[in-house]
Fold:
Amino acid sequence: MNTKEKAAQEILDFLRSDNKVLLLTGTYQNEKHSLALLLILSEYPSPANILFRANHSRNIKMFLSVLNLRKNPKTGKPIKISGGYNLYIDTINQMSWNSSPSHIDIAVVYPVGSLGESKGDDCVQDLIRRNAKKIVLVSCIDNKDISWVEQFNPVKVIYDSEEVDPEYHARTQEIVSNYVPQPISGLPEYAKNIPSEYLIQLYCKGCNSGRWAKLNKPYPGKTALKNAPIGEYTANCLKCGYENVDNYNWYER
Structure:
């Protein structure tokens, strides 16, 4: 059973390890990020700059209710937390990132399911550029495609509500089990029969035009694809058949 105690210990193990990214999932929708925050603010070495990145500014006060803050949190203004912590907030809207400090120690992103594969990649890369030593990605309901996280080799922790509320756990599991991945929208006819995990957009040197192509193995994520050695990934144009190998130069999906 994926209990609170088990999840807490695994999060603590992560905070004390050399691993950079953690993915926290499970059926306890509104408790997962709270557990992570409380552990960070009690166990992560201080002084530390902590960034909480939410899906929308209107949700921040609710998401941080576990901290019992006296003032409404605002982007760009640090909240002093006892123990030597500065808590900053922004959102997945990149315009808000300009107000966040250039150096942070640890970041929590919630809910990570609000990010698609391209914006999710951008989000994590931004946190890496801010020298984050730890990045905690937290889901709400696990009915979104967050497979793009795999390219960052995350430590995976599950926190379910089964022990506390079995009925709630069962209802949430049913929602998750009914999830059907959405196909890539706007595909031309010539690309519609290819499984989405093998599709990539690129400038085909055979056609001298932008085309959809079929990868030789599943799409690994934007950063992983760009950084892969030449030849590890190839993509055959679905129009002319030309084999493209310049993976560093391919478009986003």
The helical segments are 4-15, 32-43, 60-63, 117-129, 166-177, 222-227.
